[in-house]
Amino acid sequence: MARHSSADKRKARSPDKPKEKRRKKPSKYWDIPPPGFEHISPYQYKAMQAAGQIPATLFATPGTVPVPIVGSTLTRQARRLYVGNIPFGCSEEEMMEFFNSQMHACGFAQAPGNPVLASQINLDKNFAFLEFRSIDETTSAMAFDGIAFKGQSLKIRRPHDYQPMPGMSEIPQITVPGVISTVVADSPHKIFIGGLPNYLNEDQVKELLMSFGQLRAFNLVKDSATGLSKGYAFCEYADVNITDQAIAGLNGMQLGDKKLIVQRASVGAKSGPLAQPGAALAAPVQIQVPGLQVVSTGLGQPTEVLCLMNMVTAQELSDDEEYDDILKDIEEECSKYGVVRSIEIPRPIPGVEIPGVGKVFVEFSTIPECQRAQQALTGRKFSDRVVVTSFLDPDKYHRRQFQ
């Protein structure tokens, strides 16, 4: 494991090599999600699989639960769903095919055949209505709220004329892994995120929040007239145990010219030290990044050494050309904020446990330079991953204590 400075050890590049050469694109054959999980990234799927969030019975053969009479006019209101934010140009056949495939893939179909009987699209107002064959299957389909379809996050609701059927559940009992609901229910674990730059869209804010773990629900509040962000959002994590960790890691984070205000949406919702204002900032926290191990205990005191996480994988670092491209890109970007003394990117060695693989360490000339880089790089995307940062003790850096 060699140490690289900003001035040495550059791999020679052929004169005719295009300057716009960048890291290789992700493999087209590895880490492809199974049918029904195209709406989540391979990293999210692997992290959820490792955490046991994808049950073994997810693709079980549909059961034999009796299905109510198809087309019953008495149950029609309870068998319809409103679908908003549909992709432009989507046809009724495509909508039916998508939801029928999702219902079968997730084991929500209660009998052979397709659960969705009909689709009606209003192109002018960009919404659709789906009619299902049974009430139970309709309720199960509510779990698809927030699912991605042709690049759009669908909003699934009950119609305005919906009247609950006596003895029937109104809330889906099953969640779909990777699908983030657009409705954040009031609970002790609901989080408020304020101070968001107005130019950030839903996907960018979600990427930042998902640096800490998988989301159960997310809603970026927008102006009804303009459709622009109002600068605040609400969310809830699938694992409620990381709620405090995410609050501590995000509260006070610098994004552009603003600082985030992150706290529980319900004041006093939880007893204990973290329920007190400001306590989350002082409490030690461990940042969790999907697909990686626990990587940090908060930002810590500012130093000259910046640790960048959730940027690189062992597979990328194993390729010499890709490693060289990554090293060059990081050095060029970090040099915008100060003098880079050295960069350390631990690389994997077969059969040898190398500390710090998956992290990037950048040593700056001064602490203010390192702080500028930390504020600018936190939350940025690198190879479609949201960067997480912390400071490292210089003595540990020079002793190669990267764990």
TrEMBL record:
Bias kind Basic and acidic residues: ranges: 1-19
GO CC terms of this entry: nucleus
Keyword check for Cytoplasm: no
Subcellular location: Nucleus
Organismal lineage: Eukaryota, Metazoa, Ecdysozoa, Arthropoda, Chelicerata
Function of the molecule: Necessary for the splicing of pre-mRNA. Binds to the polypyrimidine tract of introns early during spliceosome assembly.
Keyword annotations: mRNA processing, mRNA splicing, Nucleus, Repeat, RNA-binding
Native species: Tetranychus urticae (Two-spotted spider mite)
Protein name per the record: Splicing factor U2AF subunit
